[in-house]
Amino acid sequence: MRKLFRVLLVVAIVVVGVQLGTLLVGAQGGTYVSGFTVQNQDTVNAANVTIRFYWAEGTPGAGTVAHTITDVIDAGKSKTWFTPSVPGLPDGFIGSVVVESDRPVAAIVNTQTPSGTGSSASNPNRVGTASGVLEAQTGTNMYVTQIMKGYYGWGSYIAVQNTTGDTASVTVRYYDAAGAQVATNSQSLHPYSTYVFRQESEAGLPAGYAGSAKVESNKAVAVICNYYNAGTSDATAQFHSYNGLGGGATKLYAPRIVKDYYGYQSGLKVQNVGTVGTVITVQYTFGGATYTQTSPSIGPGQAWGPYMGSPAQVPELAGVAGSGSATFTSSGQPIAATVNEDNRSMGRGVTYNAFLDGSATSALLFPQITSKYYGYCSGVQIMNVTAAPHSCTVTYSMAGRADVTVATGTIGAGESWSQFAPNVPGMTIDFNGAAVVACDGNFVGIANMSHRNDIDTRWPMNYGDNFTTYNGINK
Asked: What's the CA gap between 427 and 108, in Å, rounded?
């Protein structure tokens, strides 16, 4: 009998069924739902998947299975599940998901307002995307670079999922901007259950708090953090989502950094996950030119980073505008980082995790890419992290349609290459599929998606934060 290769994929998500009507979820307000996309990495064999939904802590069924579904994903393709449309999932479900497959898979998860939002400036859309967490990426120490409590209208929460069959004891340690530990919160988690640490409920955190956190557990956990603006209008609709990391490296890579780019600006948050202070050097690459910035000494647990929209915070980039990339180097301690991008007049914002040195590979997976799909359009951006030029091919695939493959041409050392899916020759409308990047050197990459009624004119204007980004999965 042929032995099946089984991969456990842990997706820590918070979902709320819309059937209950308006349900306030923390300070971000409104009704929230989730969608998650799973990509079959096997290009020859179909993947048989089992998806189990677990009730979160604080619910009557905490730690129990709320619903189970089984499905098949075609070879090399992806499939999406939208929680309001999952038959049998209980109304008002909030919790986590475990996906098991007999083939290697990758996944992303969206936390978003329901369909129909974004129709006006007073009813803004809001969405954030994080990566599904492979079992090998879980840990007993996880790091969160950017959290807030009443910080100029911003708040956040940390969703922690127990990824084991045993009860987990979890402690979150909060650090302020200066690196001092200012509060802790400890909770017990049932097997595979999730606890949502909401910073607005942390009595030990002062109003106006902005800092970082470390999640400690006696069992392996997965972590996703969401932070958000007030959401009272389209201009304050930003909703960011990113993954907690189980460790760091002394060098990190960021495929996309923007400055004064069509109204968009990037922000950086680099966290020292070591035991003593460290100094961080950031090398920016824009248009083939490099610029260097050096941080002050950053203490253990502390996070530091500039905002590109404030010239005083990045004097090294005076006169620079456009889209580029960045490399972070620590003077000795391991670091982790997140990269933000926002447009504060349109109320759009995204966050992704910088890539650890050693994680780059010659193959990258993007579970969800769209082209004129209900108005949503995607782009991919990949970065060459080697010291020599390399090239890649990108293959876009969707069940029931012919694959489309394009070549990148030569990409220089440390440089990025991007492509907007609607501009790909042969790409059809209503495309909702996946992409695989194959290179002759090591790369990292991200994908983004936004509603573009200027590109897909079949759909009206969508107000608020319809902009989302996630990390590509290195295979």
From this structure: 22
End-to-end Cα spacing for the chain: 27
Is it true that 1-237 and 251-353 share their CATH fold? yes
Q: What is the C-alpha separation between 433 and 369, in angstroms, rounded?
A: 5
For the stretch 185-221, pLDDT in tens is 999 999 999 999 999 999 999 999 999 999 999 999 9
CA–chain centroid gap for 265, Å, is: 18
CATH no. of 361-474:
2.60.290.11
Is 0.90 topped by the overall pTM?
Answer: yes
Determine if residue 374 is left, alpha or beta; phi over 0 gives left, psi from -120 to 50 gives alpha, anything else beta. left
Give CATH for domain 251-353: 2.60.290
pLDDT at 30: 62
Across 77-83, average pLDDT: 93
Write the pLDDT tens digit of every residue in 314-343: 999 999 999 999 999 999 999 999 999 999
pLDDT digits 0-9 by tens, 102-121: 999 989 998 888 888 999 99
What would the two tokens of residue 213 be? Answer: 């956190």
**Closest by alpha carbon to 269, among 298, 249, 289?**
298
What is the phi/psi pair of residue 312, to 5°?
-65, -25
- pLDDT > 70: what percent of the chain? 94
Which CATH number is correct for 1-237, 2.30.40.10, 1.10.3720.10, 3.50.50.60, 2.60.290.11? Answer: 2.60.290.11
In the 8-state DSSP scheme, what is residue 316? Answer: G
- Hey, which bits of 32-167 come out as E strands? 33-40, 47-55, 65-73, 78-82, 95-101, 105-112, 127-131, 133-134, 139-151, 154-162
* Count of beta carbons in the 10 Å neighbourhood of residue 46: 15
Rg of the chain in Å (alpha carbons) = 21
Q: In terms of C-beta density within 10 A (0-12 exposed, 13-18 middle, 19 or more buried), how is residue 62 classed?
A: middle
Going from N- to C-terminal start, the domains of the chain cover 1-237, 251-353, 361-474
Residue with tokens 């995790």: 353
